[in-house]
Amino acid sequence: MEFLGNLQLGLATALTAQNLFYCFVGVALGTLLGVIPGIGVLAAMSMLFPLTFYLPPETALIMLAGIWYGTTYGGSTSSILLNVPGTPANAVTCLDGYPMAQNGRAGTALLMTTVASFFGASFGIILLMTFSPVIAAYALRFGDAEFFSLILLGLVTSSSISDGSALKGLAMTVFGIMIGLVGADLNTGVHRFTFGQLQLVDGVSIVALAMGLFGVSEVIASVGKVQKNAIDTSDLKLKSMLPDREEMGRTWFPMIRGSSIGSFFGALPGAGPGIAAFMAYAVEKRVSRHPERFGKGTIEGIMGPEAANNAADQTAFIPTLTLGIPGSVTMALMLGVLMIHGITPGPNMIAQQPALFWGLVMSFWIGNLMLLVLNIPFIGLWVRLLSIPYHLLFPAVLVFIAIGTYSLSNSPFDIWAVAGFGLLGYFMRWARLPAAPLLLGFVLGPMMEEHFQRAMLLSRGDFSTFVTRPISGVLLAFTALVLLWSVKSGLSRRATAGVNAE
Amino acid sequence: MLSPPRSERLIGGVIAIIGALYVLQTLLSYDLGTLRRMGPGMFPLFLGIALTAIGAAIAILAPDRERELPDFAPRTAGFVLGGVVAFAVLVGWFGLAPAVVGCVLVASLAERPPRFLGALAVAGVLCVAAWAIFKVGLGLAIPMLRWPF
Questions:
Q1: What letter does residue B112 receive in the DSSP assignment?
Q2: How far is the alpha carbon of B128 from chain A, nearest alpha carbon, in Å?
Q3: Domain span at residue B21?
């Protein structure tokens, strides 16, 4: 039984003292930073990114992944208690979670969102374990043309699905690829776009880019906006948390539906847990016999979305680990960790690094069990953190970003780069240019160029190779469909805006 | 404040200009090669053309009605970025502890009104934490204090 052997190998990797410790660090920090509004998962991950250089790759991934799904658990806490989502993925939870808290049922809401999170996550992990090896085995047949088309599809989908205008997303993707090409060319060694700066020969540091674009610009946007509120902690006794039996019965189907929706949107590039939670809420409201209860504190309104966003957190790993194509910025950071450690992500990875893949997957079970403990008996601890004012918190975030960057190369150049990308990120926020496609383009751009060059070399300079090879042709057809669809929805939005204007 | 359609045109225009400059730099500096054997300039050439086209499309297709752009907050942005820059300047000359204090103090000016006592307390705690995590825990070779003169 190969599968059982893999599970055993994964458990053996995940259960070493070091990996258990860093898994705990990851989920605890994730919960902590998820609970506090104004520090999102990207800021949290980019702050701890430098630490991963000192750890073996599987430990580094286990920790970063723990932060990623930990924030989604923690984020529902401030949605319920403050009506402020801890992370964007928990925004929908505010709709019914906050009314529940106002009705004196905060404890029940907090307990049940944790249950839904665990259910959704388990669902996602099982899918991840079942499908990843199959997809990876299939993808072994892919050549350069297929990978080029796959990357193109991923980039186009993620820039069209992300909020706002698809054109702006595409522009930022291309801009990100451009930043990714800075440095010495792989084939010829020519220094491209370094403008004489020796520090740029090795390329732009992904850490500086991520910390500036997401960490620093998020701090700028949150200063002076995050308010603290008074919280009544008397509802948080374990006894007042349990729902009654009738209510408990109403939670099963929302959790199952939410998990399925979340798993689908999680694996789709560019969609992710935020969109998954939103879709799950919409579906729950539609299938409910009492849609009028939604928005007033009904338990279905928190169970579906919270199962969905946690399932999506887990299935997001499927394209990342099987194809080497990240669907979101957080997944791009995970790939960055692998590449820094000299591991080429792609369909070979599961076969070549079974301990890494199965260890990571088994650590998800352990991490989610830890989160269950962290979020039910210790919920009062996290709630107390909500009363720390943001003006004490944000300088600390900045200092960690600065030290983390400096520790990479001991050169102030990288910190200047963080400040520069922070400025860029702030301008982009102002101009409503999405930052996520930029980082995806940055990570995937160099790979894309390499596959493009090799595919064209093999086809002797003939572009038709991308269409005539069947898998590549199908992928490109999908890409064209996504583009057409986003052009169409963009135009119809424009038309309705024009009608409203008259 | 720019009206929404004009600001969209401006953003699209700036993107198109960046794309055009990128094409220019590519053509002037890097070898294109052939489609079969591409030089370092071929892929960037395609990128530059794509960015120019997308920028132009954003400018031309600018919607007549969009939400207003958010207000610009140069003060907040300036002090937060200033904190990062202060760290970059101070750490090379004076070591980690002064850089932490400088970063926290400059960044705390971004809050209105600035609260220096709280900021100093945060700076103190962070110095100890930085020492414990990065020096003791990870064993980094960054001096806590240094005197360059």
A1: S
A2: 12
A3: 4-60
